[in-house]
Design a protein that fits this description.
The protein is an alpha/beta fold. It has 13 helices and 21 strands. A hairpin with a 2-residue loop joins strand 4 and strand 5. The radius of gyration is 21 Å and the shape is globular.
Length: 401
């Protein structure tokens, strides 16, 4: 998919996708629930669709009614009975693959997981080793990851290293929540805010909640809001309050410090162009998915911005530190990078580029970042833009004039 980007002000009222972070956590919790489990207004992006299809294939019934999903069944009781191994295609989604591994480890079947090329390069070993220590058998058969359960032991406590990704802790907590195993991470960990969301959803399900209305996704709405802050005005119709459970909701605090005007009303979240956009400092350990947006915003701000805590960006769909730097170069944005502290320094107010033709990196957030620059400067064309379907399938329909 190739996309032409016109250089025009961005003035729109839109509804952004709901949170896939909520959706994939709740799909795992629903799969362990003995009663019908309902997810309202779900975002059927690639990461969610791959997980839904896998859950159906292992024996769960999932009904799609308009924008709602109803999960029926209880794993592993619903596990299919045929003797052959079951092949599952899972794509490249981190939450898709990582959240599913502990769940499959409860079953007695052998599952063969066909993973996308990108997720194979991302961290998995620590999670695999933990599940093997608990009695499952996870191993690589050439390029296929095989899972053979069932788990044999459920420790009272598992301490999870979250240096490379927060998702291992959440993956274990979701499945092990049925067995009173305590998953522990450091409160100072980069994963702590993401893990809070997992714990809160586990608590709600334990208290009997079986229907969830999914909130607007802050990592998605950050893109139209940032574009509006630089060049326009936007109303996010399906975001009417601050969802503190989403780590990326720190965007609102950053906007306040950068002097970007926004407010909530009964119509939604409105953001307008800042006439005095200022540089800012941000530790990004707990908002990794916001970094492409923040780098774009910093490029148009007055002053010098420092983005720190970028270590885990190396382990995303691509090395996002390298990807962001390439994009800053593409649009002539001055920058420097401190390797030792993994921090990015951006000098704002100097972005420039003629009409740009860009062959995209295989990363949805890199593509959306480039779109913001093209739209704010002199337009361009993005080749192989289909990767946005990973999180924000309607991105170009919503953003284009």
């Amino acid at each position: 998919m190739n996309v032409q980007v016109l250089a025009k002000p961005f003035i729109k009222s839109i509804k952004v996708p709901t949170s896939k972070s909520y959706a994939n956590r709740l799909l795992i919790l629903g799969s362990l629930n003995r009663e019908d489990f309902v997810l309202r207004d779900i975002n059927l992006c690639d990461d969610v669709v791959f997980l839904v299809n896998a859950l159906k294939k292992i024996g769960l019934t999932i009904q799609n009614l308009d924008n709602d999903l109803i999960v029926k069944g209880h794993f592993p009781n619903c596990e299919r009975s045929e003797s052959e191994a079951i092949d599952l295609d899972l794509g490249d989604g981190g939450t898709t693959v990582r959240f599913l591994l502990p769940l499959l480890s409860l079953g007695r079947k052998r599952y063969r997981l066909n993973l996308g090329a990108q997720i194979k390069r991302r961290p998995l070993d620590s999670l695999i080793n933990t599940l093997n220590d608990c009695g499952a058998h996870l191993y690589w058969d050439e390029d296929v990851l095989c899972v053979q359960g069932p788990l044999q032991s459920f420790p009272q406590e598992i301490i999870v290293d979250t240096n490379k990704t927060s998702q291992f802790a959440s993956a274990l907590a979701l499945t092990f929540s049925k067995f009173q195993t305590k998953i522990k991470i450091s409160e100072n960990s980069a994963a702590y805010k993401y893990f809070e969301l997992t714990e809160e959803l586990i608590k709600k399900v334990a208290n009997g909640q079986k229907e969830f209305f999914l909130p607007a996704d802050y990592s998605s709405l950050a893109f139209p809001m940032a574009l509006a802050a630089v060049n326009g005005q936007v109303l996010i119709e399906n975001c009417k309050s601050h969802d503190h459970l989403q780590a990326d909701s720190i965007l609102l605090d950053i906007f306040t410090r950068a002097k970007v005007p926004f407010f909530f009303s009964d119509k939604g979240l409105q953001c307008s162009q800042s006439l005095e956009l200022e540089a800012f400092e941000q530790d990004c350990q707990n908002c990794q998915d916001l970094v492409p947006v923040l780098a774009y915003l910093a490029s148009f701000a007055k002053g010098e911005t420092n983005l720190t805590g970028l270590h885990n960006l190396k382990h995303k769909e691509v090395n996002r530190i390298e990807g962001i730097i390439k994009i800053l170069d593409l649009f002539s944005v001055p920058w420097s990078f401190d390797e030792q502290n993994c921090s990015l320094h951006i000098v704002g107010g100097k972005s420039c580029a003629p009409f740009v033709r860009w062959k995209s990196l295989p990363d949805h957030r890199m593509i959306m970042m480039v779109y913001l620059f093209m739209r704010s400067l002199n337009g361009g064309e993005i080749f192989d833009a289909h990767h946005v379907t990973k999180s924000f399938p309607s991105f170009f329909d919503l953003m284009n004039p």
